[in-house]
Structure formats: C-alpha cells, structure tokens
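Note to self: the last two entries modelled the partners one at a time, which told us nothing about the interface. This time every component goes in together.
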Amino acid sequence: MKESEQAACFTIKTPEIFSFTECLWFLDRNYDDCLHQIEAQQLTKAVNAPDSPLLFRLHEENEALCVSILKGRLTIQNELFLKQYIRDYIDLDTPLDAYYRILNNDPRLAYMTETFKGLRMTGLPDLFEALVWSIIGQQINLTFAYRLKRRLVEAYGTKMQHSCGDFYLFPIPEILATATPEDLRPMQFSGNKARYIIGLARLFAEGRLSKEILQHAPNINDRLKLLMDIKGVGIWTANYVLIKSMKEKDCIPYGDAGLINALKQHGIVESRPTQQQIDDFFGRFSGWQSYLVFYLWRSLAVPKY
DNA sequence: AACCAGGCTGCGC
DNA sequence: GCGCAGCATGGT
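The predicted structure of the combined assembly is written out below.
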C-alpha cells in the first residue's frame, strides 16, 4: 500500500460534555438500521461525498474521534466534507453546559444530566433522507419503520461492498423518482406513503426543493411552510426534519406519540395535551427545545421512565 | 382481538 | 383556525 493511502484517516477532537457511548447507543437502540453498523464501540457508515462515495469507521481514542476510510478516496474535498458531516451527524459543535443548567432547574428532568450525560443530537444531514425517513415513520411503530427503510434502501440505494459486510447509501432522488407506487406496495408501503415518497423524490430531482432553498428561507415559519406545502408533510414531519436536518433549536413535533408518552411519564402533562399545554412547558427551554425533545425520546428507553 | 405506533388529508364548523 | 373521521399497515 502506498504511503498516501495509509494516511487515509484523521481525528476530530471531542468537545466538552460528550459521550460517544451515549451517541452510539441512541443511533443503535436495538433497531435494525440499514445505514450504519455499530459494533464494539465503532460506527461504520457509507456517505456520498463530493468526489466519491466513502465508507468510514469511527471510534474514540484519547479524547478524539478517529475516522478511518475503509473505501473511497480521501481527497481534500472529501475530507472537508466528511469532517463537517461527522460534526453535524453527532452535533459536536454545540456546547451543552447552558442546556444542562436549565435541565438541572427542573427536578423532574435533572437526572438527565447524569443519566444521559454527553448525549448529543444525532442528525440526518441529508434533507431528502430526513424527509423520506420521517414519512416512513408516520403512524407506524419503529420496528416496522426500520424494516420499510431497509427494503427501500436495498432496492434503490447504492451498495458499497466490504470485507465486513455490505453498506448502503441512501437512494438519491433521481432514482427514487422513477419508482411507482405499485413498486413500493409489495414492500408493504401503504399507498399514501408510496405516493408521498415518490412525490418528494420528484420534487428534489426537479430541483424544486433542496437544503439550500430551505436554508435561504428568512425564518423558521417560512421553512415550516415550505415543508408543509408538500403532500404528506404535516406539522410533525416538518418539525422533525428541521430538528434532524437543519439543527433548528426550538422545534416541537406536536402530536409525536413518543414525546407525549415521555411528558406523561415525567408527570408533566395529562393524556391528550393541547398544543398550548405543551408550549407552556417548553417555554422555559427556549433555545433548547429541540434538544429537550431529543432527550425525552431518549428517556423512553429507560425502564423507570 | 383490541389498541397502539416518532401522522396526514380533507372536511365541517 | 380547530376538531374529527377515515385511512393504511404491522406490532404487542
């Protein structure tokens, strides 16, 4: 192997208040996610980088994240892209101390700063992927949602083969735009999910929606409206996507079954809370509302809560 | 077998 | 703007 190829790795210094274990745990959660593999505290994943697809592996060592490239060329441009991708993927750039101070002010939530210490928002930097995934997840349980995603990705995504297994890239809109609802029905997509997803792929393929377009919208309400004008995207999906893909600080996916369960389990709301009741509680967490939603989702996996 | 799941659309008010 | 039925599909 040539020296230049041996150098196909780099490190990223980890921030204060960071737990790689917590982040990996959330990414895994015992669900069958077809877009990454987590094993022995290592994450392996394929991404579409500007110069070529990359298969990378991430592990922690000496207060740094080590990124090694298993497949694909680590050009300068690809390295810049991957560095930023990882920073976005596990939200390395947000200092959490202010958030933890607010959590500690609420006796019902203070335990989170220890129990989930260092957990960072796991993002979906690819807007198209975030939208499709949220449509898949509407109104069905997560086990089934991950199964649907796997079928879609294996049928329309790009495979990267490696000695430790096959890794998939999420389907690009241009490919998915050629599918018909009849193609997706046998994979157990409902007719509506199939139509919504294909419509979305066409929107992206025709350049009528992109992350850039959304980023250029002047404010959060314009971004919500741009998203909710899409067939199949309601208030839940729009907020979910702004959290996961756009790092929006104060988004609440109203109606989210998991969120409401978590709020009930913490004694914060009664069943079937109104939007106003949820806003009243979240008001104190301005600047960290999205993060709080994320930590409440995390809490659902704790038996006590 | 009923009720639930990281909802949405279309309708009537 | 708000509430509600109807929908679609597997898990528990």
